[in-house]
């Protein structure tokens, strides 16, 4: 099966009801060279490499991570109005940044943050992104380790009253 030629699709050729939400850019405003920029093919397309089960588990793992576990204390400290407004703003900016990241990735032909940065800003930017991701992920791992230690230490103390927090974490790791 051959991939469709997106270069030959013009705005006038596409039915408005089925038109992708892609941006028209470039010098020729009548052509849309990348209609897949807004996450096409559709959800139920056979061209998608993932499945509903894999996607569901990935979303659950992401949502149940640090985000949901820290929401009660955020609402307690900030108040319901400010926390709700901050969550709505965060959701909008996350959506927009993901759309821009997908758009940039497809335009640059990169499949990672580093490749997109290299095509836009050069090799030094790719190295910078690699270091930033390393530091970010290091802090995320430390945060999860503290969370795991704080959750499991009281349970370990029920079984072994002389258990040390650090040894509980070491045992889990």
From TrEMBL:
One Pfam family hit: Aa_trans
Ranges of compositional bias, category Basic and acidic residues: 26-46
Keyword Membrane among record annotations: yes
GO CC terms in record: membrane
Region (Disordered): 17-46
Membrane protein topology class: Multi-pass membrane protein
Main subcellular location of this protein, as a coarse class: membrane
GO MF terms, alphabetically ordered: L-amino acid transmembrane transporter activity
Spans traversing the lipid bilayer: 52-74, 80-103, 128-148
PANTHER family documented for this protein: AMINO ACID TRANSPORTER, SODIUM-COUPLED NEUTRAL AMINO ACID TRANSPORTER 11-RELATED
Family recorded in the similarity comment: Belongs to the amino acid/polyamine transporter 2 family.
Protein name in UniProt: Amino acid transporter transmembrane domain-containing protein
Organism: Thalassiosira oceanica (Marine diatom)
